[in-house]
Amino acid sequence: MLLALKLKIAVAALAGFATPLAVAPLVIDRGGDRALDAQQAIVEIAPGAISYRLSGEFTRGGRQVEAPKGALRFDRPVAIMLHQVSAADYQLCVDDGACRAMTAGTAIRADRPAIEVSWHDASAYAEWLSAKTGVIYRLPTDAEWAYAAASRFKDDGLSTDSTDPSVRWIARYVRESEIDRAAAALRGFGGFGANERGLLDLAGNVWEWTSTCFVRTALGDDGRALNHTSNCGVRIAEGQHRAYVTDFIRDAKAGGCSAGLPPIHLGFRLVREPNTPMALLRKQFARAAS
């Protein structure tokens, strides 16, 4: 059933969503192993560049300032899931004892994303899928997500140039309050359409976890970084706006969003690395956990 649905999604992508920047989504059949058959379609985005505003908080002389913005280049393809990990796919990890169960009452469906999952839940799923397949799956960095999202990526710079932090906070609140938050119900995959990369539902009503930590950076008068302070207990979730969310939070509406309006739903999709020996895989997850 899962495989049949994914084949339909792949056919739809071939029919109308794929662009020159995306190869045909690939659905993998590994001889009936349910865990392996549940791998999602992958879109490979060709190397290129985007305009990208750095994430985190930047200060100069003790006052908050706009984060630097510049060109960001990717010299190798980015292979990323066509849509978010589904509730049915995530449940396979739960059944295997490698993932924490979803909230009671969650519909285990193959055409809906897994939601109310924390950063730790998403990372556990990536580690489980990697161990099952022998190929590294991981959360994207914020920069990779932005590159994949293309026009769906929202620059979180503010139009105001006031040095008064309260003015900046109000400007950010007003901008985020204009987001349509009435449509909170989950939709089937493709319900929020495809971007020019052929990826489904980016910046819909599911914010997606990334691996990027929240970082505070102090800038000198010349714009160069004087120091960085990382807080990896808070990670970036990308969606209709960039959100900074505590890593163990599953429902940001109930608390845990460190800035701005909280995400409606928390979910994730994964990046697939080229084939890599399992020894390197273990090292990667050991570093991520430290």
Features:
290 residues, paralog of FGE (formylglycine-generating enzyme), 6-stranded mixed sheet, 7 helices, 12 strands
Commentary on this structure:
With 290 residues, the protein is α+β, with helices and mostly antiparallel strands. It has a single domain, classed as paralog of FGE (formylglycine-generating enzyme), CATH 3.90.1580. Helices cover 27% and strands 23% of the residues. Strand 9 and strand 10 form a beta hairpin. The radius of gyration is 19 Å and the shape is globular.
The CATH first-level class comes to Alpha Beta
Q: pLDDT below 50 for ≥5 consecutive residues: which ranges?
A: 1-32, 34-38
Question: Please, how many domains?
Answer: 1
Strand content: 15-25%
H and E string: HHEEEEEEHHEHHEEEEEH
**CATH topology annotation:** paralog of FGE (formylglycine-generating enzyme)
The largest β sheet comes out as: 6 strands, mixed
Corresponding CATH architecture: Alpha-Beta Complex
Give the overall shape, derived from the CA principal axes.
globular
Mean pLDDT: 78
The number of helical runs is 7
DSSP strand count: 12
Query: How big is the Rg?
Result: 19 Å
How widely separated are the two ends?
A: 38 Å
Which class of secondary structure composition applies to the elements? alpha+beta
Overall helicity: 25-40%
